[in-house]
Amino acid sequence: MIANRTAGYLVDLVNGLRKWSKETEWIEFKYNRAVPEEIGEYISALANSAALTGRTNAFMVWGVDDMTHEIIGTEFDPASEKKGGEELENWLLRLMTPKIDFRFHSIAIEEKPVVLLEIGAAFRQPVRFNNQEFIRVGSYKKI
Asked: Backbone phi, then psi, for 72, in 5-degree steps?
């Protein structure tokens, strides 16, 4: 289960992820692109890949440049996002099979807004979004 995290812990976590030389099977960086269907696919892919690589969690971070890993900030605000009138987080959870643990964290780093999506690794079976399993191969999402 993903616990509540302090702001200091989350800043340190994002800065630790930024130290990786590139995106991995369990780390994805974004700027502002936050299409609900794509987020669901990434949750599936990252959860499944985290399990295959022996990680307990995977991460998607908005507000970090995917090439330089510099903090650039984001306009994405998951708390205000809706899909068909439903809150984004509830909509995503409803379409996940099995239900997995994930949580959005909104923080400021270098006085810029950053969103960290922390995703628990798949357990016992692959995670599907909208009845489709996804996986990461390197930094690419695949069906």
From this structure: -120, -10
User: Of 133, 54, 57, which is closest to residue 95 (Cα–Cα)?
Assistant: 133
Reading the block at residue 48, the tokens are: 């499944």
Decide the pairing of beta strands 27-30 and 57-62.
Answer: parallel
Distances (CA, A) of 31 to 6, 101, 115, 122, 123: 23, 23, 10, 26, 29
Cα separation, 129 vs 117, whole angstroms: 16
Separation CA 88–CA 33 (nearest Å): 14
- State both tokens at 63: 């507000």
Express each pLDDT in 26-70 by its tens digit.
Answer: 999 999 999 999 999 999 999 999 999 999 999 999 999 999 999
